[in-house]
Design brief:
mainly alpha; two-stranded antiparallel ribbon; 15 helices
């Protein structure tokens, strides 16, 4: 403790040492961010048994959640734009300022934004960003431990939230908060911004629950909604059910990648719904996020979906095990192929959707009803998978053709109909439905 007693220093020495320490702290912060960025890029937190860089900073380095978040955000931005490192080390930018700028930095504006933010207070940076990027303030959400018991200001805040949900304006209370009570540790104040549609859903849920929750208490409605959502998600994730069926007797080799429902339930219960990866230091990951059912013996090497050979792994540690089994280069190629196929699939789906809209528009020009045109377009999309617009239009017309001949502007043969191109107008007189 004697090292922290500075009463013996003169005023000049105290001010000089303070300036030196601040400069040293800035340089240390920049170096710390560089290390965080490199560890994050190499994903070295995975072998250590942590599912994310944030979890490693909080649980292994013992940073606070907020400090970890800010440093990771600034580190990633600085790794992409190294000028941020120099600005932090030289004191032209502080850590909070770097976090404010990070979501807006790009190759085109990085130099200009960093120059505009030099030696500015955070309020000034926020105003500058609001002018340059209007309407980009993201959603806000916060969980705040409630410092007061039920019946105090927490109840008032809940009433104000309920009133806001119902569109009723409220005035802030100026009454002092009462002393904490015994139930204050179990209550949390939730604040968030929601869209108008979410507000409408909440109000509708309050109306549906008006018999069982006459007050429309948002907290109780939210609790019931989460119970229903969790039950539904558990059914999808690991086939949770109150009345499980007897396991089917089928050879496991018939579909090793298809994990039976009873295996999912047993593995989930055994692993407690958490990642089972254990790092080099003996730390278990234990995260509940992005969980996957993983074969301890890869399927390519004969692994079977049994209770003993299955385990829960988060996405990051599942990929790490795959890299250890097949090599990082092989998995990089596989992941790149998967990303390419996903892009192609999205492009193909967009093109198919555009063709379906064109088919519907063409059928509508021929006098078809909306429901008929949609059914015919769906049929044509399946029958002519990957076909041209003309092929799909012909298939749709054949689908709608009644048993007797259909007259469309004097044309009796569907195959002789001209191709309908969006933008062209065809005068039609037809009955596209069944007669």
């Amino acid at each position: 403790m004697r090292a922290y007693s500075l009463t013996h220093l003169t005023d000049a020495a105290l001010m000089r040492d303070l300036a030196v320490l601040v400069a040293r702290d800035r340089a240390t912060t920049a170096a710390l961010l560089a290390h965080i960025a490199e560890v994050d890029a190499r994903r070295l937190y995975l072998p250590a048994g942590y599912e994310s860089m944030h979890a490693y900073c909080v649980d292994a380095l013992h940073l606070s959640e907020d400090a970890a978040y800010k440093r990771i955000q600034a580190a990633r931005a600085a790794r992409q734009f190294p000028a941020v490192f120099a600005a932090l080390a030289e004191g032209r930018l502080n850590l909070t300022a770097a976090c404010l700028l990070a979501p807006h930095l790009s190759a085109d504006n990085a130099d200009g934004l960093l120059a505009a933010a030099e030696h500015q207070r955070n309020t000034g940076i926020r105003e500058m960003l609001a002018r340059r990027f209007p309407g980009e303030s993201g959603p806000f959400a916060a969980l705040i431990p409630s410092p007061v018991p039920r019946g105090g200001s927490t109840q008032l805040a809940a009433q104000q939230v309920d009133a806001a949900v119902q569109g009723i304006p409220t005035e802030p209370s100026e009454s002092p908060a009462p002393a904490p009570g015994p139930d204050s540790q179990d209550r949390i104040l939730l604040q968030l911004r929601v869209t108008r549609s979410t507000q409408d859903k909440l109000r509708y849920a309050q109306a549906l629950l008006s018999h069982s929750v006459p007050s429309g208490d948002t907290a109780e409605v939210l609790d019931r909604a989460l119970d229903a959502l969790i039950a539904r998600c558990e059914g999808r994730k690991f086939a949770a059910t109150a009345r499980p069926r007897a396991p089917r007797t089928r050879p496991l080799t018939a579909g090793p990648r298809q994990v039976p429902a009873h295996v999912k339930r047993a593995v989930w219960a055994r692993d407690e719904g958490r990642c089972t990866f254990v790092g080099d230091t003996g730390h278990r990951c234990g995260t509940r996020r992005f969980l996957e059912f993983d074969h301890s013996t890869p399927v390519a090497r004969g692994g079977l979906p049994t209770i003993e050979l299955m385990r829960l792994r988060c996405g990051g540690h599942n990929q790490l095990e795959a890299e250890r089994s097949f090599g990082a280069e092989f998995m990089d190629i596989r992941r790149e192929d998967a990303r390419r196929r996903a892009v192609e699939a999205r492009a193909s789906a967009a093109a198919a959707s555009e063709r379906s809209r064109d088919v519907i528009a063409g059928l509508r020009q021929l006098g078809c009803r909306v429901d008929e045109a949609r059914r015919a377009a769906e049929h044509a999309a399946i029958a002519c998978d990957g076909g041209t617009l003309e092929d799909q239009l012909r298939s749709a017309l054949k689908f709608l053709r009644p048993p007797r001949s259909t007259v469309v502007t004097g044309v009796h043969d569907v195959n002789r109909l001209p191709m309908l191109v969006p933008g062209r107008v065809f005068v039609a007189s037809a009955n596209c439905g069944s007669s």
